[in-house]
Amino acid sequence: MTDHRAAVSATLDAFHQAAARADADRYFAFFAKDAVFIGTDATERWTIEQFRRYADPIMARGQGWLYLPSNRNLAFNARADTAWFDEMLTNESYGLCRGTGVLSLHDGRWLIDQYHLTIPVPNDLAKDFAQKIREHSAKGAALPGGNAPR
Questions:
Q1: pLDDT (tens digit per residue) in 34-89
Q2: Which domains does the chain have, with CATH numbers?
Q3: Can you tell me whether residue 56 is helix, strand or coil?
Q4: Would strands 95-106 and 109-118 be described as parallel, antiparallel, or unpaired?
Q5: In angstroms, rounded to a whole number, what is the distance separating the alpha carbons of residues 16 and 7?
Q6: The three-state (H, E, C) secondary structure of 133-147, written as one string
Q7: Cα gap 30→111, rounded to integer Å
């Protein structure tokens, strides 16, 4: 299991490095063919093809996104061919974030099946923040469930 822990952790580290370097080909190579990326906005539940259509033009301009991971937790199923993770991330624009997801072995290689990026809201701020989201939605903002990248 120790080798699996090191391999999954190395995969996630390389994934974040590819994003920071705006290396789209390398970045998207870390995703399984039928993977899903869930972003911070309620409308951001994308297949990898949809997410790539959003990200490719940004990365083509040399713009990546730097998320520095810390406090990573890993868990594995009994066969040690599926891993779940959560990690705290630091980003210059968004501050403290959390990444969670699932990886599985595909032909001996760990690939991301689902990645979910969130911005943790402190409990003391949650009610006020939830009210701001309701107000934003009432103004005709996009509602959850859409798949179109913005």
A1: 999 999 988 899 999 999 999 999 999 999 999 999 999 999 999 999 999 999 99
A2: 2-138 (3.10.450.50)
A3: helix
A4: antiparallel
A5: 14
A6: HHHHHHCCCCCCCCC
A7: 5
